[in-house]
């Protein structure tokens, strides 16, 4: 029979050439890095983290500025003026006025001083409010770090899974090619049909196409990681043994309540709303300040009789302001602050419940992934034994080629599922660490 199948041969060659070219491209300038190393690159390169850090720096400056506002307010002044004569209409406005001579040149210099002695502690509460906002900015910065770590971990693990799948499919393609040679020899000997050769070639072509898809996924994940980390070379995950485990769910929840970023931020926001109530109530309180003025001016028109000589004058005193209108204008401001405070407390409790639910779902997913890993390990052993038996039977003409191909595909699928389960365990672990605030 004729074994020349130009369509299948051309398709296999095209896929093979494409796979080879992609593999060659990937092999250039590759960089083998561990998860810890790539996290360091991400921390140093992430624009999201830098933005959060700059926001934190801004809040630190604002705290210093509110402290500076406790200092006395000092100003100096100076003016020079020219005054015209003052017409006096002593015979009526329609008659020519007489001109009253005045001192034409007026000079005034001096300094003003004001020190707040008491204003309901609004300045101190403003400093405390700025400190709370700085704490929130600090938590946002830590959250940004954790979010980048979580994203990098997921991308790195996806990339690691792709490389493992790539190695599995490459080894399987080598085995399939060897098996194809054996089937072709049987075909030449007349032991099998040409359809068997076609089916195996088709399955081999599918595997080569799957290899191309996996290499495409590797390139896509590499691009995402390179964007975050600033690494130009191809990133190749290093092999590592994952030996971290989680056991006690109650301990996880306890640790999350102490360290979770979302709860820390919510607690600070509750304190901020509580402080806003005190700030609103302080509007009822009087203000008392120490004030002084020093003047050096010409002419002297402060006391009668006036004269055009230079003089200086200093005034020191206390200034008291009692906001009477606040007793009716500030009433709704206090009510609004109380409502905002209650709303923030409800939000905080809701976030606690949401976090506990997320932790429970993640922990159950983690335990399920552990069980799946054990099951997949058994499935791999079973699939390997099944593939061995079916292969022996096929080459003894006791099984169909479909049975052979199904057994091979089942083995490859179970190997993929095993590695996917291993990666899923790590993803659930890091997600729980992220929720706990300890990633």
TrEMBL record:
Keyword Cell cycle included in the entry's annotation: no
Presence of the UniProt keyword Transmembrane in the record: yes
Coiled-coil residue windows: none
InterPro entries (UniProt xref): OMP_efflux, TolC-like
The entry's keywords: Cell outer membrane, Membrane, Transmembrane, Transmembrane beta strand, Transport
Localization per Swiss-Prot or TrEMBL: Cell outer membrane
Lineage: superkingdom: Bacteria
Annotated SUPFAM superfamilies: Outer membrane efflux proteins (OEP)
Protein family according to the UniProt entry: Belongs to the outer membrane factor (OMF) (TC 1.B.17) family.
Protein name per the record: TolC family protein
């Amino acid at each position: 029979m004729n074994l020349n199948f130009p369509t299948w041969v051309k398709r296999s060659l095209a896929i093979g050439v494409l796979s080879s070219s992609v593999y060659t491209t990937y092999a250039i300038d590759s960089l083998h890095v561990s998860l810890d190393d790539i996290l360091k690159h991400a921390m140093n390169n992430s624009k999201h983290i830098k933005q959060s850090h700059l926001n934190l720096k801004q809040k630190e400056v604002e705290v210093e500025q509110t402290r500076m506002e406790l200092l006395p307010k000092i100003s100096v002044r100076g003016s020079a003026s020219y005054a015209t004569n003052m017409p006096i209409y002593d015979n009526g406005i329609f008659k020519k006025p007489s001109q009253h001579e005045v001192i034409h040149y007026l000079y005034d210099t001096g300094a003003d001083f004001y020190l707040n002695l008491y204003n309901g502690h609004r300045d101190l509460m403003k400093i405390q409010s700025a400190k709370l906002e700085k704490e929130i900015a600090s938590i946002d910065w830590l959250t940004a770090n954790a979010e980048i770590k979580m994203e990098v971990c997921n991308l790195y693990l996806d990339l690691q899974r792709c490389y493992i799948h790539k190695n599995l499919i490459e080894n399987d393609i080598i085995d399939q090619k060897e098996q194809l040679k054996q089937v072709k020899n049987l075909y030449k000997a007349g032991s099998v049909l040409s359809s068997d050769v076609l089916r195996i070639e088709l399955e081999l072509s599918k595997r080569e196409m799957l290899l191309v898809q996996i290499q495409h996924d590797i390139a896509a994940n590499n691009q995402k990681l390179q964007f975050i980390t600033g690494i130009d070379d191809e990133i190749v995950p290093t092999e590592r043994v994952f030996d971290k485990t989680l056991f006690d769910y109650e301990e996880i929840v306890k640790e999350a309540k102490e360290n979770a970023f979302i709860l820390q931020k919510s607690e600070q926001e509750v304190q901020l709303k509580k402080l806003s109530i005190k700030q609103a109530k302080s509007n009822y309180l009087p203000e008392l300040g120490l004030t002084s003025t020093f003047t050096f001016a010409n002419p002297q028109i402060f006391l009668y009789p006036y004269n055009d000589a230079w003089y200086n004058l200093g005034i020191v005193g206390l200034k008291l302001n009692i906001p009477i209108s606040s007793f009716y204008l500030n009433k709704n401001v206090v009510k609004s602050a109380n409502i905002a405070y209650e709303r923030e407390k409800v939000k905080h409790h809701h976030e606690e419940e949401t976090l506990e639910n997320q932790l429970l779902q993640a922990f159950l997913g983690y335990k399920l992934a552990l069980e799946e890993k054990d099951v997949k390990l058994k499935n791999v052993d079973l699939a390997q034994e099944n593939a061995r038996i079916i292969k022996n039977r096929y080459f003894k003409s006791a099984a169909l080629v479909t049975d052979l191909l199904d057994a091979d595909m089942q083995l490859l699928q179970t190997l993929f599922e095993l590695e996917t389960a291993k990666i899923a365990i790590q993803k659930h672990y890091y997600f729980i660490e992220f929720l706990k605030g300890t990633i």
